[in-house]
Write a structure and sequence with these properties.
Blueprint: H1 4-16, E1 21-28, E2 33-36, H2 44-65, E3 71-75, E4 79-84, E5 89-96, H3 101-124
Antiparallel strand pairs: 1-2, 1-5, 3-4, 4-5
Helix pairs in contact: 1-3
Length: 125
């Protein structure tokens, strides 16, 4: 069996195909990086800030409408950041502001399901 990080990296590579995703990270709930699409540059600040944003989003939705967090979208002039997943791990992707966001949402959702399966299988064995 391949190492967990290799399986997740392959999932990220598949997700990047045919999308405008620039970079992606798989982070833990506590803000640590599991892996990224660019393993040479592991930006721990991005992971920590993303984990904080997830917690803030969850609390805000609970307080306002007693709802659960589905995803976060941060839009700038040049870049958009999408954060999905709020259990133990989350997927953080950066993309061009002109990207086809619907396709990115779909690819991220599929990748996140696969990542959950990889982690579940690894830690149940």
């Amino acid at each position: 069996m391949k190492p967990i990080s290799e399986q997740i990296t392959e999932t990220l590579e598949e997700m990047h195909k045919h999308t405008d995703i620039i970079e992606s990270y798989v982070i833990r709930k506590d803000g640590l990086i599991l892996t990224s699409s660019n393993p040479i540059m592991k930006n721990h600040r991005i992971a920590a800030m993303s984990a904080s944003l997830i917690e803030i989003g969850k609390k805000t939705l609970k307080d306002i409408g007693n709802d659960d967090l589905k995803r976060l979208l941060i839009t700038g002039d040049k870049i958009q950041i999408i954060i999905m997943g709020s259990s133990q791990v989350a997927l953080v992707c950066s993309l061009d502001s002109e990207a086809n966001i619907g396709m990115v949402f779909l690819r991220m959702k599929r990748a996140l399901k696969r990542i959950y399966i990889i982690l579940k299988e690894a830690y149940l064995d």
